[in-house]
Specification:
The protein has 57 residues and is mainly α. It has three helices and no strands. α1 (8-19) crosses α2 and α1 (8-19) crosses α3. The relative contact order is 0.18.
Length: 57
């Protein structure tokens, strides 16, 4: 996986793991991604979800 791209499914998975209480290091190890990618996905996913809702109206 490229350092600069992550599929929506992977981002959603990382965000879900973060909401479940796992640390960024645990998420990164489980998903085999960097801690930076896990942090980015967990922080950006709520914004992406909101954008999808507004575009579908």
């Amino acid at each position: 996986m490229s350092m600069f791209s992550m599929s929506d499914e992977k981002m959603a998975q990382a965000a879900a793991l973060a909401r479940s209480g796992k640390s960024l290091h645990q998420i990164a190890a489980e998903m085999r991604i960097s801690v930076e990618m896990a942090r980015s996905a967990a922080s950006k996913w709520p914004l992406i979800e909101r954008m999808r809702k507004f575009r579908s109206l």
